[in-house]
Structure formats: structure tokens, C-alpha cells
Amino acid sequence: MIGAVEAAVQIGLILLRGTGARPTSFGEVFELLGERGIIPRDLAAAMRRFAGLRNLLVHRYWEVDDARLYRELKEGGLETLRRFLRHVH
Questions:
Q1: What percentage of the chain has pLDDT greater than the value 90?
Q2: Torsion of CA 45, 59, 3, 19, to 10 degrees
Q3: How far apart are CA 5 and CA 11, in angstroms?
Q4: Which pTM was predicted?
Q5: DSSP designation for 76
Q6: How far apart are alpha carbons 79 and 87 in whole angstroms?
Q7: Domains of the chain, with CATH numbers?
Q8: Which of 19, 20, 31, 72 lies at 20 to 30 Å from 61 by C-alpha?
Q9: Cα–Cα distances in Å, from 74 out to 24, 25, 45, 86?
Q10: How confident is the model over 20-43, as pLDDT tens digits?
Q11: Dist CA 18 CA 56 (whole Å)
Q12: Residue (of 49, 57, 37, 55) closest to 75 by Cα position
């Protein structure tokens, strides 16, 4: 999960290069991609939530509910990542 979000952020930064965008957070990368029409806004919002989840895993891992994390990934999280890849491919 952490690696997938970080890779998606790197892709997003490449796509934003030359647009004048200067994101200050992982979540903002996805927000800017949505605002510029590079990915759909609903996908940008979903990816921004993933960025928040990544931050929780990295910075406050002791607060993570493993069952919730598994459920979120299984019930659409992986499809969100696949959708992101289809849009940036």
C-alpha cells in the first residue's frame, strides 16, 4: 500500500511537470491531477484518501485497524489503483 501510493505520487509529479503546479503533500498531487483534468475528479479524491491512509500507516501505524485496511483494499481500493494506472498509462 505504501509503495503503491508513493509510486502513484511519483507518476503524478511527472505528469504535473511543466504545469506550474507545486504540490506540498502527497494528497495535493492527486488533487492537482484532478483539477487539471489529467484524471477524473472522483478518482483524484479516492487517490487522495489513499495518500491519507499511507500517511497513517507511515506516521501513526499503531492506530491502524488491520481489518479496516484489508476491507478498504478489498472493497474497491485495488480497483482504484488499477483505474489510476489506466488513466495515466
A1: 62
A2: 50
A3: 10
A4: 0.87
A5: I
A6: 12
A7: 2-88 (1.20.120.580)
A8: 31
A9: 29, 26, 18, 19
A10: 999 999 999 999 999 999 999 999
A11: 30
A12: 49
Question: What's the one-letter identity of residue 43?
Answer: L
Q: Where are the beta strands (DSSP E) in the chain?
A: none
C-alpha 12/C-alpha 62 separation (Å) is: 29
C-alpha cell at 56: 497513517
d(CA 82, CA 63): 27
User: How many other C-beta atoms are found inside a 10 Å radius of the C-beta of residue 56?
Assistant: 14
Give the whole-angstrom CA distance, residue 54 versus residue 76: 16
Q: Which amino acid is at 13?
A: L
User: What confidence category does residue 16 fall into, taking pLDDT thresholds of 50, 70 and 90?
Assistant: very high
Evaluate whether 39 touches 47 at the Cβ level (below 8 Å): yes
